[in-house]
Amino acid sequence: MLFNELKLSNALLSTISKYGYKETTKIQEKVIPLVLEKKDLIARAQTGSGKTASFVLPILNLWGKQKVEGKAKVKVLVLTPTRELTLQVAKTFEVFAKQISKKLKVVSLIGGDNLGNQMLQVQKGCDVVVATPGRLIDIINKKQIDLKSLDFFVLDEADKMLDLGFEEELQVILDAIPKKRQNLFFSATYPNKMSTIALKITNNPLEVFIEDEEQIVENINQRAIRVNLENRSALLKDLIKNSKWDKILVFMATKRSSDNIAAKFRKHGFNAESFHGNLDQDERKFTIEDFKNKEIDILFSTDIAARGLDIDDISCVINYDLPRSTNDYVHRIGRTARAGKRGTAISFLTHENLEHFKLIEKKCNIKLTYEEIEGFELIGDELKKEKGQAAIKGKRKSKKDKLREKNLKTK
Ligand code: ADP
Ligand code: MG
């Protein structure tokens, strides 16, 4: 569908066209008219399918029609799980508000940045607040933000935002915003357990799911390579040397392993950096900027980079360590092949994580061929388990079992 078939203002349509969007994506085609009709929505669509614009555009359209006088009041609140995603969404509002005659003031509230400054910006008056929950709650508790005029409450990466542990925080926020408001939830994944919470917060929401759509973008070439745990780093170097990948995002299980491997790769002449929540805000900002500008080729990261980030031309995502949950797998590999582009996602399968990967495959409804790369073939005991993890019963006899058997026979 063309954007100008939607009931958006000429000013917005002109910005959209200048920005280079021609046709709507599927989710935009469905969601934009419903937001304009002021419906509550729970929307699901694949990673990289343009969910951000699907709420930003109609919200701006409705906002632009309101007559407000005096100091700006917060009309839109968007919550996201990470600082980087908050800044990204705030930017999208700013980009598309450029030609609207009224001036839009957007404030980002994130941890790690100067709290006083953020409060000052809020007090000066703003229309849109994009925030991570922690920092927003700090400011709510200090009674430094008035959210009583709010019209739109948006959760990006909604399943993550409604995940366990966030319930109390959510209550503080719900208490600060009006009961009558439009609720808009977006994600590529919704675990079943989430729907009850989502229904509680929203008001007769329409569930907008793109029909016949697989959870995972078909343009991602998913691969799985079997390798011994201790050979993963050598294999990764080999793969990088023999491929023409542009930007490579490598997911690691911990902050420390991410730092260590990045240092090791730098020693070997690779242009690698590490990204995780222990960096200070400036380091986080510059690392992502450098990765965007191709000043970093390989970014090792924890799951903090798994959600929502829209970085152009990440050609390959590597699961050096597997993600814990199936949903995280979907989001991690969704950092590549965005907006119809192609990309590769490779998971390293060791003796230790094979069973876990099979579970991910089952839940994602995929079945990959397990490859081996020459020189890095998997060797050793198939049934070895991760340290501390109990062996699966009936698969491998423990020393004790064998001894017992022997005793039985001799008796
Ligand atoms: P999602 O939130 O669904 O993962 P994003 O909103 O981050 O996806 O959008 C992914 C990319 O697609 C962004 O770079 C965005 O600019 C681009 N995009 C969004 N809508 C369109 C469109 N209609 N035409 C072309 N590109 C689009
Ligand atoms: Mg998104």
Major sheet details: 7 strands, parallel
List bound small molecules.
adenosine-5'-diphosphate, magnesium ion
Q: What fraction of the residues are assigned to beta strands by DSSP?
A: 15-25%
How would you sum up the global shape?
Answer: globular
Helix content: 25-40%
Give a count of the beta strands, DSSP E runs of length 2 or more.
14
Strand order of the largest sheet: 3-4-2-5-6-1-7
Structure description:
- By secondary structure, the chain is an alpha/beta fold.
- The chain is 38% helix and 16% strand.
- It has 15 helices and 14 strands.
- The chain has helices at residues 10-19, 26-36, 51-65, 83-97, 115-123, 133-141, 158-161, 167-176, 194-201, 232-241, 255-267, 281-292, 326-333, 354-364, 399-410, and strands spanning 41-44, 76-79, 106-109, 128-131, 152-156, 182-187, 206-209, 220-226, 247-251, 272-275, 298-301, 314-319, 343-349, 370-371.
- The longest helix has 15 residues, at 51-65.
- The protein starts with 9 loop residues before the first helix and ends with a helix.
- Magnesium ion binds next to α3.
- Residues 51-52, 156, 308 line the site of magnesium ion.
Keywords:
2 domains, Rossmann fold, 16% strand, binds adenosine-5'-diphosphate, 7-stranded parallel beta sheet, 15 helices, globular, 411 residues, alpha/beta, binds magnesium ion
Question: Could you give the topology of this structure?
Answer:
Layout: H1 10-19, H2 26-36, E1 41-44, H3 51-65, E2 76-79, H4 83-97, E3 106-109, H5 115-123, E4 128-131, H6 133-141, E5 152-156, H7 158-161, H8 167-176, E6 182-187, H9 194-201, E7 206-209, E8 220-226, H10 232-241, E9 247-251, H11 255-267, E10 272-275, H12 281-292, E11 298-301, E12 314-319, H13 326-333, E13 343-349, H14 354-364, E14 370-371, H15 399-410
Parallel strand pairs: 1-6, 1-7, 2-4, 2-5, 3-4, 5-6, 8-13, 8-14, 9-11, 9-12, 10-11, 12-13
Helix pairs in contact: 2-3, 3-4, 6-8
Bound molecules: adenosine-5'-diphosphate (ADP) and magnesium ion (MG).
Residues 51-52, 156, 308 line the site of magnesium ion.
